[in-house]
Amino acid sequence: MASERQTSWGGLVALDMFLGGIGAGAFTVGFILALLGEMKWLAVTGIALGPVLVILGLLCLFLEVKSPWRSYRLFSGLSTSWLSRGGLIQILFIILGLGYALPSFWLSGWLDSGAGIALGSEALVLALAIAVYHGMILSEARAIPLWSSSVLPVLSFFTALCTGLGLLLLISPAYVGLYGSTEVVDAMGILGILGIGFIIAELITLSSFISLRPSATYVASIRSIRTPLIAAVIGFMLALFLLSLGLGIGEVTPFMWTSQVSGALLLAGGFIIRYSILRAGYYAPLQILI
Amino acid sequence: MVIDLKKCIGCYGCHIACKSENCTPPGILWSRVLQYEWGKYPSIRRISLPVLCMHCADPPCEKVCPTGATARRPDGIVTLDSMKCIGCMSCVIACPYRARSLHAKEAEYFPGQGLTPYEMVGYQKHPTGVVEKCDFCLSRLEQGLEPACVVGCMAKARYFGDLDDHYSEVSQLIRNRGGFQIYPELGTDPSVYYLPP
Q1: Nearest-CB residue to B93 (from A1, A9, A66)
Q2: Among B132, B164, B141, B181, which Cα is nearest to B3's?
Q3: Would you tell me how many other CB atoms lie within 10 Å of the CB of residue A257?
Q4: What is the mean pLDDT of chain B?
């Protein structure tokens, strides 16, 4: 009996995971920059965009759900359901994340104040939980071998970090007019170093995800998305090369160019990975084992 | 429930009996019959494999349901409260037996002809935007009757009874004829057993 592909979750769920992942990643990177105490403008951008993108992701999920007017019941299954847990985590993150981000627009020094760091740390924990949750929600489907892989939550985590960082890389050159090229290049230097670490971790996780061989259905599922996965891997490797090149050259114009291209590649690769994994959700065929 | 694969002739009678009893909308099947190749070459047989909600003792659909719409009753029947379901499809994905389907929008069996009087009455039990599944014909059980698929099986291949009763017909059939479950390795402990073909 042939494997059947799941058709229940499609583009909107992939978009929810993609946007939520970018939001969680952008917030994490923004918080790291805030802790370093430099490039406040970029830190605020990441911290403020995080909750906004999570809201957009939730909106996609809201559109995907067939009876959204009953969504107030979403938290009834907290003890067992990752969808319930994820909903709660995201709502708490939005509240705490905005609570951390908004005062920074009129209170200078808020981000690295004691209260700010305390609030931001709590939001950071939730952001990291969101990055993992998108993998956990898929790993609940035990009958879909590809999704029940234990590597998937880790892959989801690093994909979120890469895409969040990709967004900041993409938009940071836009600040050159406001803050001057020297400061922007410094910021992109820090992002570049973080990016190299995240991309290497992503590639290692992705390669272990692809190389697992627990069942024939798993192998067939990976084979069905071979082309997009190869494209994503090439994109990530190219981003890694360009970031290294930009850091090596260190001059304003080529660095801005390599950062923007790397950011776009990371975002595109992240979406391809999330969408492909959703599309490759094949059920193990029913078997009579007697 | 026990399904004797040796007796099943693949007539789809259970499928039709279920549709007739529950008035399930077009495209929604609470009880299906799959054609299955069984054995190893050169001794391969083609058998009919009726599948329905397995009413698992440890149902994955109940665990993933964020709203508590899916619940397992003390008697082991897994029910779905359509008033609580938000149509998130988590349970559809989590069910290894593909026993659940979404009733996305109302459709008629005779396109362009409008709903028949039977459909008008029957569809009141089938709100749109929610997930549906077999409930072992709960309304019949409450009247002391067996599920429609059991009564409608012309080959008498289906048996319904209490698995907890060691002396019930179903327990004895499982014990004496080597009854087995589908996907036992997933740990769901289905309440539907099959007898070997």
Answers
A1: A9
A2: B181
A3: 15
A4: 93
CATH of domain B2-195: 3.30.70.20
Residues in Cβ contact with A213 at an 8 Å cutoff, skipping those fewer than 6 apart:
A219
Q: Structure pTM?
A: 0.91
Instruction: Test A67 with B66 for CB contact under 8 angstroms.
Output: no
Asked whether the predicted pLDDT for residue A264 surpasses 90, the reply is yes
Q: Which two tokens stand for residue A285?
A: 């065929």
Q: What tokens appear for A166 in the block? A: 């990709």
What values do phi and psi take at A78, rounded to 5? Answer: -60, -30
pLDDT band at B93 (very low <50, low <70, confident <90, very high): very high
Can you read off the two tokens belonging to residue B140?
């019949």
Q: Mean per-residue pLDDT for A111-118? A: 87
Could you state, in order of their start, the residue ranges of all structural domains in chain A? 11-279
Nearest to B24 by CA among B135, B143, B113: B135
> Could you report the per-residue pLDDT of B131-153, keeping only the tens digit for each?
999 999 999 999 999 999 999 99
The token duo for A154 is 């880790």
Determine whether the interchain pair A288/B180 forms a contact, defined as Cβ–Cβ distance below 8 Å: yes
Alpha carbon distance A4, A67 (integer Å): 26
Distance CA A273, CA B132 (A): 31
Inspect the interface and report whether the beta carbons of B93 and A84 lie closer than 8 Å. no
Q: Does A74 touch chain B (CB under 8 A)?
A: yes
Helix (H) or strand (E) holding B194: strand B193-195
Query: Which chain B residue is nearest to residue A136, measuring alpha carbons?
Result: B64
Give contacts of B102 with chain A, Cβ < 8 Å. Answer: 8, 66
User: What is the architecture of the domain spanning A11-279?
Assistant: Up-down Bundle (1.20)
What gap in Å lies between CA B49 and CA A175, rounded to an integer?
64
> Looking at the predicted complex, does its ipTM rise above 0.90?
no
Whether the CB-CB separation of A285 and A2 falls below 8 Å is answered with: yes
Binary contact (A77, B65; C-beta < 8 A): yes
Q: Quick check: B66 and A1 CB within 8 A?
A: no
Rounded CA gap, A159 and A267, in Å?
A: 9
* Chain A residues touching B129 at Cβ < 8 A: 66-67
Asked if A67 lies within 8 A of B85 by C-beta distance, the reply is yes
CB B49, CB B5: distance < 8 Å: yes
CA distance A134 to A122: 19
- Residue B71 · residue B78 · CB < 8 Å: yes
Instruction: Tell me how far apart the 2 most distant CA atoms of chain B are, in Å.
Output: 53
Report d(CA B146, CA B158) in Å as an integer. Answer: 10
Query: C-alpha A286: how far from its chain's center?
Result: 34
DSSP for A3-24, written as a single string = --B--SS-HHHHHHHHHHHHHH
